[in-house]
Design a protein that fits this description.
single chain; 623 residues; mainly alpha; 3-stranded antiparallel β-sheet; two-stranded antiparallel sheet; globular
Length: 623
């Protein structure tokens, strides 16, 4: 039997007993996903390989991008299963739904046939629907909203895959597509799953993710969006590059990054804030996919290899940091971030939460900062492009939006960390949160500590994906920094453009912190609190962090402040449903007018309408 079948069957083990022994299934889930992560890492290191297994439409394989994304997703699933051991461990339905979701996510990654891929993709949406809606007490619309957009994604992928088969004559993933319109349709199918288009409807993803159990939210934001990125890269690397397609993705991504960060900083919900942040991070990764496609057109192998490496590093940092961020949401016993009701966590757990928050701020030397550096370097290089004026202009404008959005993420997760880790009422769940939080924070910290190894193995895989015989390893020694502790970027002429050294940044920060502490000691200074323009209080509230932004961007937020019982609250009007209702009113008005003119009770007009419609169908079919 082909060894690849082992990777397909492994996630089925916890699923098989999840409904009977839920807690045991979580322990087996930790073992199975850790095994998958270890196998992926060994494969990336070059000591293991798998062949493709094909039986009619059942075709699975494990090479190239599949290995990298299996490694990324498997690590997030370890956090999911560890958290589930302490979160409602005896709930059979929840265990069953989590196991189904994990199985379908992993199956999508190793599918090598578009029919099998689409089948597991649809199953992934169904498992998400079940996870969001398994509690009867929640509102009924979040699971249906999630499923509706999942179906929209499936429709685009179905049409795109049909065109893919018509153009290539193959159902196997990886066939070359020369038509950019087919590629666009397929990529839109994945983009809709990431919740970024159209811009003001990004609210559907936080609505759905915010109403799921915490383990489900981790899977949605850290795993399913990562799988959507995987799908984009699979087809982007096997399609003809097109500058217009690349520019569209850059523009889509930059606006989504900005609006995601704007809505995240103002959110007062402990689960919707990181969900909005997922929209921001998805926008950043889509921008990089657009840059990758654009530079492939000019056949600049070192530059688009660097961009592809940046996508993989960013995806890794986002998935692992975001899984930890959703574990942080479990601290609170109240969805309101400002509430003091929650679990008091230990020092190491608080340190782990800080690590995840700083990474999601996009600050060096943590993984999120390294990924942000790859994004900004790619934009800076593209902005100085002498290849295509359009690409340079779009890179400058989109880079400005991206930088603004990235800057907003700093107060976002400063607020999130400060108020989420300051709970003081209930200590009963200390262990429930502390263990998975510590594991997640340690994993995020590991990105910085072992970034040279990660860059090396990812670079080797990038060389294989881009069919480069001589691997481009973006590690070097410069300015007294020895190899391999320096990561460098390349310019359009393949010369060194910029560089960073996370290890040396970490050493500098540690030295500066020790010096500051030794000089200043434990002395603290009190200053008057400015509470964002609302009534003065002894301490700054969570609401005050984004109050100025709410006032300036009131038309964007569609919100206003209201004072109830002496306290200020934000009333946000549901943007998603406002747009849906407005669209429904337009359709109803059109239908009413159409009915009065064409189908107004006159049998002659009705017969004429039937004849015209019938002839039109015959003409279209004949062509």
């Amino acid at each position: 039997m082909n060894s690849i079948i082992f990777l397909f069957v492994l996630p089925l083990i916890p699923l098989a007993i999840s409904f009977t022994f839920p807690k045991l299934s979580y322990y087996l889930g930790v073992i199975s996903t850790a095994t998958l992560a270890a196998i992926s890492l060994v494969d990336l290191s070059g000591y293991l390989s798998f062949s493709t297994l094909t039986f009619h439409y059942f075709s699975i394989g494990f090479q190239g991008l599949s290995v990298i994304f299996e490694f990324i997703v498997a690590v997030t699933e370890i956090v999911v299963y560890v958290f589930s051991i302490y979160y409602m461990p005896e709930d059979r339905r929840l265990a069953f739904f989590i196991s189904i979701a994990v199985f379908t996510v992993n199956s999508v990654i190793i599918s090598r046939n578009v029919i099998l891929f689409l089948m597991f993709w649809e199953s992934m949406s169904i498992s998400g629907y079940l996870l969001i809606g398994y509690k009867n007490r929640i509102k009924s619309y979040p699971p249906f909203v999630f499923f509706a957009f999942g179906e929209l994604s499936t429709v685009f992928l179905t049409v795109g895959f049909a065109a893919y088969f018509f153009a290539t004559g193959s159902l196997q993933i990886g066939a070359f597509v020369s038509n950019p319109y087919i590629t666009l349709i397929i990529l839109l199918g994945f983009i809709f799953k990431m919740g970024i288009v159209p811009l003001q409807m990004v609210e559907w993803l936080p609505i759905a993710h915010g109403n799921a159990p915490t383990s489900g939210s981790i899977l949605f934001s850290a795993s399913m969006t990562t799988v959507a990125l995987y799908g984009m890269l699979v087809f982007a690397t096997s399609s003809a590059p097109d500058i217009i397609l690349g520019v569209l993705l850059i523009v889509f991504g930059s606006f989504s990054l900005l609006f995601g960060s704007i809505f995240a900083v103002s959110s007062e919900n402990s689960k919707m804030l990181p969900a909005y942040s997922t929209v921001e991070n998805s926008g950043a990764m889509i921008m990089m996919v657009g840059l990758f496609i654009s530079w492939r057109l000019y056949d600049n192998l070192p530059l688009y290899s660097f961009i592809l490496l940046g996508i993989l590093i960013y995806a890794t940092a986002h998935a692992w940091s975001k899984s930890t961020a959703f574990v942080i949401s479990g601290i609170s016993l109240d969805p309101d971030i400002n509430s003091r009701r929650g679990v008091r966590i230990g020092k190491f757990s608080k340190f782990s939460a800080a690590v995840a928050a700083i990474s999601l701020m996009g600050l060096l030397p943590l993984g999120g900062g390294i990924g942000e550096w790859f994004l900004l370097e790619s934009l800076f290089i593209s902005a100085s492009s002498n290849q295509h004026v359009l690409l340079a202009v779009v890179a400058i404008l989109s880079g400005s939006l991206a930088s603004l959005g990235a800057g907003i993420s700093i107060p976002t997760f400063t607020k999130y960390f400060s108020f989420m880790t300051g709970k003081s009422v209930d200590e009963g769940g200390k262990r429930r949160i502390g263990v998975p939080l510590s594991i997640g924070g340690t994993i995020v910290l590991g990105i910085s500590l072992f970034i040279p190894f990660l860059v090396y193995v990812y670079s080797v895989s990038v060389s294989q994906i881009t069919l480069n015989k001589h691997s481009l390893i973006f590690l070097s020694s410069l300015k007294g920094i020895p190899y391999p502790f320096l990561i460098y970027s390349v310019s359009q002429t393949t010369a060194t453009f910029g560089f960073i050294s996370p290890l040396f940044i970490m050493m500098f920060i540690a030295t500066a912190a020790l010096a500051t502490f030794s000089i200043g000691g434990r002395q603290r200074r009190s200053i008057p609190v400015w509470n964002g323009g609302i009534d003065q209080e002894d301490e700054m509230s969570s609401f005050a962090y984004a109050n100025v932004l709410r006032i300036i961007l009131s038309k964007v937020y569609l919100s206003r402040e209201e004072k109830t019982g002496g306290e200020y609250h934000e009333r946000t009007f549901d943007i998603f449903w406002i747009m849906i209702v407005d669209f429904a009113l337009i359709i109803r008005k059109f239908s009413s007018r159409f009915g009065k003119v064409v189908m107004n009770g006159s049998i002659n007009r009705y017969i004429a309408y039937i004849i015209v419609a019938f002839l039109s169908v015959l003409i279209i079919v004949s062509f």
